[in-house]
Amino acid sequence: MQDTKAKILLNERYRQNYFMMRLEAGWEDFVPGQFVMVAVPGGKSFLRRPFGIARLTGEGILEICYKVVGKGTLDLSSVPVGTNLQVLGPIGKGFDISKGTGNISILVAGGYGIAPLLGLAEALVQEEDRSNIHLFYGAQNEEHLLYLDEFKEMGIGLHVATQDGSLGAKGLVTDELKKFLLSTINHQPSTIFACGPHGMLGAIKMIAAKNRNISSCQLSMESYMACGLGVCAGCVVKDSLGNFVRVCKEGPVFEARELSDI
Amino acid sequence: MKPNLKVKIGKLELKNPIMVASGTFGYGEEFHKNFYDISKLGAVVTKGISLKPRLGNKTPRVAETASGMLNSIGLQNVGLRAFITEKLPFLQRVHATTIVNILGEKIEDYVELAQTLDEEPGVHAIELNISCPNVKAGGVQFGTDPKLAAKVTSSVKKKIKKPLIVKLSPNYHDMPLMAKHVVDAGADALSIMNTITGMAIDAEKRRPVLANVFGGLSGPAIKPIALRMVCQVYMASKKQRPIVGIGGIMNITDVVEFLLAGSSAVQIGTANFINPTIAADLVDQLEQYMIDHDIADIKELTGGLIV
Ligand SMILES: Cc1cc2nc3c(=O)[nH]c(=O)nc-3n(C[C@H](O)[C@H](O)[C@H](O)COP(=O)(O)OP(=O)(O)OC[C@H]3O[C@@H](n4cnc5c(N)ncnc54)[C@H](O)[C@@H]3O)c2cc1C
Ligand SMILES: Cc1cc2nc3c(=O)[nH]c(=O)nc-3n(C[C@H](O)[C@H](O)[C@H](O)COP(=O)(O)O)c2cc1C
Ligand code: FES
Fold first, then answer.
1. Which of A128, A215, A221, B54 has a CA between 20 and 30 Å from the CA of residue B26?
2. Which band of pLDDT confidence, cut at 50, 70 and 90, is reported for residue A185?
3. How many domains does chain B divide into?
4. How far is CA B203 from CA A49, B206, B286, in A?
5. What CATH number is attached to the domain comprising B122?
6. E strands, A43-196, in order
7. Is B135 inside any structural domain?
C-alpha cells in the first residue's frame, strides 16, 4: 500500500451517471478485488472515498469506474484531467484465484460491482480456459451496463440480466445464476467471485450454500470507511465467529461462509 | 543551530511534541510498515485498551460531517493480554515511545490495567480515557463528574511509577474545574481533548446515520473548541501540569496554535486518516518552523499567546 500523488489522465462520463477515471499511479502490481481511497478535491468531502480497482496497466495506469451518488462522487466527476489526486492503495485482500484452479469460474456483478471483476476476468483468462469462465451481470437497464465490449472480447461466457429486459434476460441476475447452476455444466467444481449490492451478495451466499459443487464463494463487501488503513475499525462486518473484521484489511473479499451478517 | 524540540511529560522526555492520538493509529503497525519509521514521533498513543477484548458497536460506525467525522467504534480493542503479547513487542522492537491509552467500566479495571502495564518495559506512560460510562455508578461517564474523575486518577496514580496522563472529555462543561480535580488527584499531565458527542441524520430515511445513534465528533470542526479548552485550563491552573493539545490538528499552523494556547505537546488524530504521513511530516515542519522563526527551544511557544 502506498499514498501516491497521481495525475488524472481521463475522467469522463462513461454511461448514465457512471464515470471512468484513469490515473497515473505508477504502481506495479495489484490483486483484483483490491481498492483505493481517493482524496476528493473541492473541500466538501473530508474523508477519502473508496473505489474498486478496475485495472492497473503494465505502465502503472490505474482505472476506476464510479457512480455519482452524492457530493463526493459529484465533485470527483468535475475534476479536470491533469489534476493530481492523492490515491491510497492498493488496499485490502482481493480475490483468491488460486482456490479455483481448474474450476468453472463464475463471476457475478451488480451495478458498479463490475469494476473489480474486469480486472479479475483479465487475470483469469491468463490462467484458465476461457470457456470455463462465466460472467453474470445484472443492471437496471441496458444503459447501466459497463465494460460489455471488453468482456465480449475476452471470449468468456456472458449472462446479462436487466430489470426491464432491455438487454439479456429480464429480471435478477441471481435467477440467471440459479438456472445456470441447474444446467449440466454445473456438475463440475465451481468458484464464485461476486461484487455488487448487499442484497445480491446475500442471495449469492444462499445459492452457494445449497450447491456442493461450489467450493469457494468469494464476496466483495462494502462498508462505510474512514481510514482505509486498518486502524479506525470503522469499516467492520461480522464474521461467522461473531467477531468484527475490517473490510479494508481482512476484506473487502471474504469467503461467504466466513461472514455472518449477510 | 538545531532547535530543541524535546519536551517533558512528567518524568518522560519526548524527542518532540508530536504524538498520534488514540484510536487513529491502531497499534502503529500499519503506519510503520507502509509509511514511516514511527520511532520518529514524540510518542505513539495506542488504541484504548480494556481488560477484556471488546467487540465494539454495530455498524455504521463512522459518518462524515462538515469538516470532520463522527465515530461510534465502541472502543473495539484486542484486550490487555493480546496487547501485551501481540502488539507491544512490535512497538518495543521499532523503538516507538509508547503511551498506552486505557479504559474501564469501573475504577478497579483502570487500576488493574495501569498496574499491569506499569510493569511492561515497552510502555513509557499511561493515558486514562475517562470518557467511558462507569457501570457501578449507573453509567455516568467518569469524565463528566469531577469527583469520580479525581477518584479514578488517584486510585491509579497510587499504584504506578510511570507518568500518568488523564485525557479529559469536552462533554463536561467546566474544563478548568475538571482539570484542577485530576491534577490535585495526581495527574502528571492532561490530554485535552477527546471527541465531542454528536449525531448525524439521514433526512431521506428519517434515521440516524450511526447505528449507535450518537458518536464522537473529531476533525477540524472541533478545533476551536479544543483550543478554547486548552487555553482556559492553561490560564486557570496554578499548579501547572503539561497539557497535550488534541482536536482537529491538520497542519503545522494548527500545531503552533495549540502550543501558543498552552500545550506542551499535541496529538494528531483524524488527520492520520486524511494523510497517512501527516504526523511524521509535522515533526519536520515543526523543526523548520522553529528555524524560520528563530525559536531555539519549543518551550518558548507553549503558552506564548499574547492576550
Ligand atoms: C471497498 C469499496 C469499494 C467500492 N468501489 C466502488 C466502485 O468501484 N465504484 C463506485 O462507484 N463506488 C464504489 N464504492 C462506493 C463508493 O465508495 C461510495 O459510493 C462513495 O464513497 C460515495 O461518496 P459520495 O460522497 O458521493 O456519497 P455520500 O454523499 O457520502 O453518500 C451518498 C450515498 O452513498 C452511500 N454511500 C456513501 N459511502 C458509501 C460507502 N462507503 N459504501 C456504500 N455506500 C456508500 C450513502 O449511504 C448515501 O446513500 C465502494 C465502496 C467500498 C467500501
Ligand atoms: C475512530 C476514532 C477512534 C478513537 N478511539 C479513541 C480511543 O480508543 N481512546 C481515546 O481516548 N480516544 C479515542 N479517539 C479520540 C481521539 O484520540 C482524539 O481525542 C479525537 O479524535 C480528537 O482529535 P482529532 O480531531 O485530531 O481527531 C478516537 C477518535 C477516532 C476518530
Ligand atoms: S476503514 Fe478504518 S479500519 Fe477500515
1. A221
2. low
3. 1
4. 21, 5, 43
5. 3.20.20.70
6. 49-52, 55-56, 61-67, 84-91, 104-110, 133-139, 157-162, 169-170, 190-195
7. yes
Contacts of B63 (CB under 8 A, 6+ apart): A224, B69, B70, B200, B209, B210, B215
Residue B137 has pLDDT above 80, yes or no: no
CB nearest to B34's CB, from A1, A232, A235: A1
Report the residue from A229, A237, A242 with minimal CB separation from B276.
A229
- To the question of pTM greater than 0.80 for the whole model, the response is yes
Query: pLDDT by residue (tens digit) across B245-265?
Result: 999 999 999 999 999 999 999
Say what the pLDDT of residue A101 is.
Answer: 78
pLDDT at A99: 82
| Contacts of residue B33, Cβ cutoff 8 Å, sequence gap at least 6 | none
Question: Is the separation of the CB atoms in A85 and A79 below 8 Å?
Answer: yes
Range(s) of the domain holding residue B165: 7-56+74-197+218-300
Looking at residue B294, its pLDDT comes to 96
Q: Does residue B67 form part of some domain?
A: no
Atom of ligand 3 at shortest distance to CA of A247? 4
Residue B69 belongs to a domain: no
Would residue B184 count as lying in a domain?
yes
For residue A229, the ligand closest to its alpha carbon is 3
**Residues in chain B closer than 8 A to A223 (CB atoms):** 59-60
Q: Which residues of B are catalytic?
A: 132
pLDDT of B1 strictly over 80: no
Cβ contact B60–A48 (<8 Å): no
- For B13-23, how does the pLDDT look when each residue is reduced to its tens digit (9 = 90+)? 999 999 999 99
Counting ligand 2 atoms within 8 A of each CB, the residue from B54, B64, B195, B223 with the most, and so the one to mutate, is B195
